[in-house]
Prior knowledge:
alpha/beta
Amino acid sequence: MDDVPLLEVRNLNKIYEDGYHAVRDVSYTLPSGKLVGLIGPNGCGKSTMMKCINKMHPLTSGDVLIDGKSIRDQKPGEIARQVANVPAELKNSFGLTVYETVMLGRYPYLRNLWWETDEDESSVVDAMRKFGILHLQNRQINMLSSGELQRVLIAKAYVQNPRLMLVDEPTSHLDMKYKLNVMEYLRAMVRQDMTVLVAEHDISLMARYCDLCIIMKKGGLVAVGDPKKVIDEELVREVYEVEASVGTDADGEIYVLPKRFVGNYHL
């Protein structure tokens, strides 16, 4: 089993009922123990592909395998024990507290619908402590800042003990401090038996933190690999229609400095 990838996406296509082809014949594999950036402009298919991976969207064609097993024949509860989802935003909180929200991550393991075990409670408290939100446990999540809410959602996914964590645009509403804070938490979460896949717009942020990058444009795959090897000025121009300077700083970290839009204007 050592040579079986944690995640394998095979010729994945997703076409919506209105005919929009959101994901186009995408194939790649990911090993365990990696922080992976899923990069591309708005509408390139990042979020749709993630929703196909955790079976929130039915696949039009192709397949997704977790540890060599297709998701097609698996029930939602089975997938939830392997794949955790951190959404870009929480649309309905129903007045839940931080503690109650994180506890929802234990749902795939609950043996009784109405109460949690000591193990569940211990797992939730440990996660809240790890992500610096224990002091917020009794606060309703609709009273949290964007940075605090992101940590709550990550903690909720963490207590699922997933093999794969899908994180959708975790820094889109955050200032510079919290962007770095969230990425540091995600970087620290990666372990030998778990990979974190992060969909993001910020190519510099992903290049800095990620072991691998998957780069998409118009539903298709442009490149997969070490960000220091695949991200260059030509790629940024192709994917984002932006002229940019790409280089490394004094610490050897890659940066992308956008300079000008070179696509076609539609005014």
